Amino acid sequence: MLNIFARASVSRVTDPIGALLVRAGLTPNAMTVFGTACAVAGALWLFPTGHLLAGTFVVWGFAMFDLLDGAMARARGYGTRFGTVLDAACDRIADGALMGAVAWWCFVVANDRIAAAACLVCLVLGQVISYIKARAEAAGLDADGGLVERAERLIITLVGTGLEGLGVPHAVIVALLLLAVLSVVTVLQRFLAVARSSATRAEEGG
Prior knowledge:
Layout: H1 2-23, H2 28-46, H3 52-63, H4 65-76, H5 81-109, H6 113-138, H7 150-165, H8 171-205
């Protein structure tokens, strides 16, 4: 949802940076892999060891590299199909590492099984939300939108971990329960979008 409203504003900031990086000889794919590797390493190192605030800033900072690879592709004047697949795969890897690391913190450090269960639900539903869109697009259908796309999932999760890291009690479990509910709604929204798109295509074909 934020993608719709914030894309133009974000591009005004990231596009000049992307152009600078391309002139420096870097490629969008290299930026994708670098940002993902660092986000995964930061999440798996910092969250399970209880460093919630540091983990929040590290993961958020390197997640921003996901914005730069698109800006670099635009500055270069073209993207590639491989780059599109790589970007999507790396997003899933980074999201899985983040939610897995937070689940570990919930289980081992906080000893909060409810929060851990909510985190695992969010992990699965986050993958399903993205999968529905990918499969719909492969079938020539539309499944865009929904309350919590990747940006919203990251924001809600990292706000929770960041506040907990600052000493706000129960911030993580509140964020995860909220995200779990919104993720269920988003899955349903995407299935409805696919159903509407399929019906429209059937009418056009008939």
